[in-house]
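hiii so my PI (J.) wants the whole complex modelled not just the main chain, which honestly fair. so below is everything: two entries, each one labled with what it is. i double checked the lines twice but i was tired so who knows lol
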Amino acid sequence: DAGVIQSPRHEVTEMGQEVTLRCKPISGHNSLFWYRQTMMRGLELLIYFNNNVPIDDSGMPEDRFSAKMPNASFSTLKIQPSEPRDSAVYFCASRSGTVDEKLFFGSGTQLSVL
Amino acid sequence: DAKTTQPPSMDCAEGRAANLPCNHSTISGNEYVYWYRQIHSQGPQYIIHGLKNNETNEMASLIITEDRKSSTLILPHATLRDTAVYYCIVRVWGGGYQKVTFGIGTKLQVIP
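here's the output for the full assembly
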């Protein structure tokens, strides 16, 4: 298995632009998580899905952030409009849920908003 | 999920055993202890988990005290590649709809 795949690996954009981050979970996993990591705040959970349904989005910082999971093999995290304080590494993780509780993380997207 | 407390940083000499402690005094009977690590610029990686018995795999050993209020992750022969942030998490097996949150973790520096 290729593991959790995130794209792009790096994204540099200007303030006010729309940013879309993508995630392909491990096939067969039914839970998906989006995390954000900064030096100041560490690893923060933004939102997670179970069976493609958003369960808890209380970690989403503002209405500028939105996440979708149209099917079991794809999820997006969108920021519109982006701001410099959104600069961070964004990780996606998936979990089997039925087999065990282990989380498998992608390599992350390094986002820089200028 | 029960909260965990870890020291913010530790050093370990290369080749020696690294013992990383975690306190989880409010753990409930059906909560497991999980350990992950994050090597710089990579996503966190699962290491090991346990309920009440000691566990060992190819990466590490997990020792859980009899009262389950604390645990220790042991890297038997630390290498430079083990330099990372180590996270201790407790959560219910089959938690399903429960979110998974990470604390600050312990930054382990393996010294040559």
